[in-house]
Design goal:
The complex is a heterodimer of chains A (334) and B (96). Chain A is mainly β and 334 residues long. Helix content of chain A is 3%, strand content 46%. Chain A starts with a helix and ends with a strand. Chain B has 96 residues and is α+β, with helices and mostly antiparallel strands. Classes of the chains: A mainly beta (334), B alpha+beta (96).
Amino acid sequence: MADYKGIKGFKVTSIAGDPTNKVVGDVYYDTTANALKFVGGPSGTWASGGTMPDTKMGGGSAGTQTANLQFGGGTNAPLNGNQVDTTFSYDGTSWTAGGAMGTIRFAMGSFGASNTAAIAVAGSASPGSSSKAETESYNGTSWTEVADLLTARGEGLGAAGIQGAGLVFGGYDRPGTTNVTLTEQWNGTSWTEVNDLNTARQGPGGCGITTAALCIGGDLTPQTAITEQWNGTSWTEVNDLNKARNHAASSGTSTLALFFGGQAPGACAETEQWNGTSWTEVGDLSTGRYLLGGSLAGTALSALAAGGGSSPAGTDATEEWTVSDTTVKTVTVS
Amino acid sequence: MANKYCTATNTGKGFFTHEDRRQFYLSGHAGDVWVVGDNFFGDTWIDRVSGISKTRAEAQAIVDGKVEEAQAAYDALSTEEKEIGLQSRPQKYYLP
């Protein structure tokens, strides 16, 4: 049988630990771990992030992995009995409390580029998960009510955009009893109804901007895998998720996005990446969770999962998704 | 793949790293239960986080207990509250 030296012309290098300069394809023996390793190509993983000041699920979120905002929602299920107005701001290392929301609510629509510029719109509130229409704007310190959505709705709206230009879609009309297809566009001052989704749903994910967005999954009872793409004018159905789910979180753009967590109906840990054409499963959260917060203005290479309902209670744990240029893998022989 | 089981409190940033996730299987469950890939790196992580080793049956019992607590809370809700609660009844599952 050919050995490594016979094939490559040199022996496998032995070093204590991992090399500083990693080159894809390198093979070496780690004498510290007593393991044969090789350097693979880019891949993403979730690592633990800072713990939030309190448990939070069903809140709104905005920003990136290192400048993130989580607000409203509840501390635990049921959300009607545990709703909160708290805001938590993340700097990539630790969380601090921000200004309280003016309208207490959960399962809202939300978007914004950072932890100092966010919009919260619509959502559900106790008693009875009644639908809200209020829109509030965050400046890094406090929330200010700015305008109402044209059609009140809750139980999870998809969203995309930044503080001055956003989009919300879907949701559930309560006290009515229907999922909605309605899409409304925010210009920084007021809402305008634009073209509907093709498939009504509550609790979809969303990402992108007002001219290029995604509506991902959601709940049609049962959960759906349907994905739609917005081109600034209308929605077109594109390829489905691999795993149907609702109340998940997302990060990225309409051509390169990450979708993670959710409910199917149990808490999901799966992470899928969208490349503009199709979804591929790329890795799992350490802990499955639904009604979690994301990083709408993040990327598919750098994302944040915050809080959520975690098999089964609300959690204060966060996880950070990062894609590295190279990946050290251990060779196992069985 | 064999796994080990422990309880450990998630202390936040650095509790598990990207390197950890590449080197061994790790999943977190109710009751601070962690399922850890059975290799050198997994063992090292359990030591690092002061994990308390459990048998699979012990770990499963902790998770089951937490799910049963949540099921009881869910069952105590009114029919209307269940319909509008945005969550389904928690279900027991087997640890990997």
